[in-house]
UniProtKB/TrEMBL annotation:
Lineage: Bacteria, Pseudomonadati, Pseudomonadota, Gammaproteobacteria, Oceanospirillales
CDD domains registered for this protein in UniProt: ABC_Iron-Siderophores_B12_Hemin
GO molecular function annotation: ATP binding; ATP hydrolysis activity
Membership in a protein family: Belongs to the ABC transporter superfamily.
Keywords: ATP-binding, Nucleotide-binding, Translocase, Transport
Keyword Nucleotide-binding among UniProt keywords: yes
Source organism: Billgrantia endophytica
Domain of life: Bacteria
Domain ABC transporter: 8-243
InterPro entries named in the record: AAA+_ATPase (IPR003593), ABC_transporter-like_ATP-bd (IPR003439), P-loop_NTPase (IPR027417)
Name the UniProt record assigns to this protein: ABC transporter ATP-binding protein
Length: 262
């Protein structure tokens, strides 16, 4: 079957750690326009799967392709222009300005020793505009709040030119307001044709902001589909051993309410 244009596709991935199958026959596709939320309990293998999709870990079996081209045949630089990783917010070792941090996203285009071109500078400014962080551009990254750092790291990914963004718990450590604003920004990026894969420990966020949800359990993708279909109380029970009820607002939004834990 032909992959959707621009899609990243993993088929039948197997990955072992110390003889244990962390990923065991995983199929997953990320296409432009998707917001795909990957849920799984602690240790389920979400980060391992992300690292395979980024070409940082080589699966023991199965294949990963980008536009039908095997990932393993693409250079790191070619890959970085197509797929960007947005890590969890981290402490920066040096007080680079926000503009300089976003500019690091241009390295796959001009290399570490060449001066940035006009096109590089334009891409950096466009990414800063897209994330609405122009007012922060001169501030040292080290002095930013967690939410501002997260926006800076997303802008860096956009400056990279990649259309597929892979995010490890993008709202972790953010206050409620910043969480909601970040999720809203992700929706806008998806509407602009970016494909976003994010891991999350919040089923509520997957209900509120995802076009698809994939559940990783015991090494396999147990379900992959629209949030309202996949995120049943039974599925939450199986994943987290928590009983929940789903409350729906008149606007159709949903939230999980715990009804009991093991
Ligand atoms: N470098 C490593 N060496 C050995 N085992 C590892 C290593 N990294 C991860 N593991 C194991 O692989 C399994 C999957 O880990 P992974 O980090 O992918 O899970 P996760 O779903 O991202 O977890 P969390 O939600 O807690 O971040 C876990 O059992 C973990 O202990």
């Amino acid at each position: 079957m032909a992959a959707q244009r621009g899609a990243l596709r993993a088929s039948r991935l197997l990955f072992r750690r110390a003889q244990r199958k962390v990923l065991d026959g995983v199929d997953l596709t990320l296409a432009p326009g998707d917001i795909l939320a990957l849920l799984g309990a602690n240790g389920a293998g979400k980060t391992t799967l992300l690292r395979c999709l980024l070409g940082l870990l080589r699966p023991h079996a199965g294949g990963i392709s980008l536009d039908d081209v095997p990932l393993a045949t693409l250079s790191r630089r070619a890959l970085a222009r197509r797929i960007a990783y947005v890590p969890q917010v981290h402490a920066a070792p040096f007080p680079y300005s926000v503009r300089e941090v976003v500019g690091l996203g241009r390295l796959p285009h001009h290399g570490p020793f060449a001066a940035p071109s006009e096109a590089d500078r334009a891409a950096v400014e466009a990414a800063i505009d897209q994330l609405g962080i122009g007012a922060l551009a001169k501030r040292p990254y080290t002095e930013l709040s967690g939410g501002e750092r997260q926006l800076t790291l997303i802008a860096r990914a956009l400056a990279q030119g990649a259309r597929l963004l892979i995010m490890d718990e993008p709202v972790s450590g953010l206050d409620f307001g910043h969480q909601m604003r970040l999720l809203e920004r992700l929706e806008r990026l998806a509407a602009d044709g970016y494909g976003i894969l994010k891991t999350t420990h919040h089923p509520d966020h997957a209900l509120a902001c995802a076009s698809r949800v994939a559940l990783l359990h015991e090494g396999r993708i147990e379900a992959d589909g629209p949030p309202a279909e996949v995120l049943s109380p039974q599925a939450i029970r199986r994943l987290y051993r928590v009983d929940v009820e789903i409350l729906r607002s008149p606007a159709g939004r949903g939230a999980f309410v715990p009804a009991g834990v093991d």
